[in-house]
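Figure S7 source data.
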Amino acid sequence: NPSTGKFTVSFIEGDGIGPEISQSVKQIFDAAKVPIDWEPCDVSPLFINGLTTIPEPAVQSINKNLVALKGPLATPIGKGHRSLNLTLRKTFGLFANVRPAKSIEGFKTIYDNVDLVIIRENTEGEYSGIEHVVTPGVVQSIKLITRDASERVIRYAYEYARAIGRPRVIVVHKSTIQRLADGLFVDVAKELSQEYPDIQLETELIDNTVLNVVSNPSSYSNAVSVCPNLYGDILSDLNSGLSAGSLGLTPSANIGHEVSIFEAVHGSAPDIAGQNKANPTALLLSSVMMLNHMGLNNHADKIEKAVLSTIASGPEGRTGDLAGKATTSSFTDAVIGRL
Ligand code: NAD
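Tokens for the predicted nicotinamide-adenine-dinucleotide complex:
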């Protein structure tokens, strides 16, 4: 907004613990004087002709602002509804899911030095939803890989590696078995590598990746991994487990050509909703990714440092999921005190 010098960002607070952790982000952003005005978005799904759709005002808001922060959305139980998260991905063409997984200083897990980044193709592969019964007892499920979708996500991986100063891009695949599908994904990566001479391309079979990452995660600290949809889904959860050991800590970004939506990896945590117990860190670290994406790096660094040093300060500074004693609001106040 040229008259106020502020950016407008769409904010989907989400369900369950969503409003509590969203409140924490808003308070911390206010205290840090981040030049952002939030535009609240209601994405309560509409079911029209058997299709899940998002209310038009929310679509307009996100298409106008191009950047959104999103709390967790509960998926309605019942058949026939596409999940709202999938609907958002399709509506805004969010082709890459970026998930960093980094050890948190002062919170002990199996490994100390995990710093992994995985980029998952978000639109096709095993999630194309093309399945049919050939004959009773025989089903076919189609994994769709296209040159276009592979190219846009792999190109994003090269660009992301360059932007965060990592010299290696690793394509994770199983082209020994999925010769054509994963073969195309690997071929596209090799073709694109000509355009990124400063980045070293490596290819790795997914079974090797799994073994390597659990035995020596720090060997990936200077790399960005990129892979087809299902592998990315599984590997990114593995990485979260290795780095943090709590769902309350892992952020993510969903990137499209125009729109990007930033969100915590965890769900709406109905078991602790409304009890001032939720850990807002994952949404806060997602908002830090968002600030970096927007070029507001100083604000991003300031908030990230305050969050991490609060967690490192000991059990008084941590929420219950990290075996601490803090509430959502006392944690928020402590972060504000450390900005
Ligand atoms: P969940 O991530 O909501 O909860 C799993 C466990 O982790 C619970 O014990 C919960 O209390 C804990 N937890 C999660 N986030 C936490 C936080 N910030 N602080 C402290 N503890 C936290 O997973 P679930 O119970 O399987 O799913 C609940 C709902 O969320 C479902 O409707 C599901 O579809 C939805 N969901 C949404 C998203 C999303 O919007 N991206 C992702 C996953 C699940």
